[in-house]
Amino acid sequence: MANKSLAKRQKLSFRIEPSQRSLKPRNPIAVAAKQRAAGPHRKTTSANRQAKKRELIRQLLQKNGDH
């Protein structure tokens, strides 16, 4: 009979103080991403080659401009 009376009323629940409430649940995808090995990215070989080519052209133009 006790169960019958509780069915129509609000079920008994434990009250938690605001200071005891946990924070928002963590995003499991973000945690996994953060734990992965990460570091500075390296330039690709083609990017390095293009940078060296630009540097060479810059040096050649500076030499020709000095004369």
In short:
The chain has 67 residues and is an all-alpha fold.
Describe, in plain words, how this protein is organized in 3D.
The protein has 67 residues and is an all-alpha fold. It is built from 3 helices and no strands. It has helices at 2-8, 28-35, 45-66. The model has no long low-confidence stretch (mean pLDDT 76).
Proportion of residues in β-strands: under 5%
State Rg: 33 Å
Average residue-wise pLDDT: 76
Number of strands: 0
Largest sheet: none
Portion of residues in helices?
Answer: 55-70%
Shape designation:
rod-shaped
The helix/strand class is mainly alpha
Order of helices and strands: HHH
Total number of helical segments?
3
How would you summarize the topology of this molecule?
Blueprint: H1 2-8, H2 28-35, H3 45-66
Primary descriptors:
67 residues, mainly alpha, rod-shaped
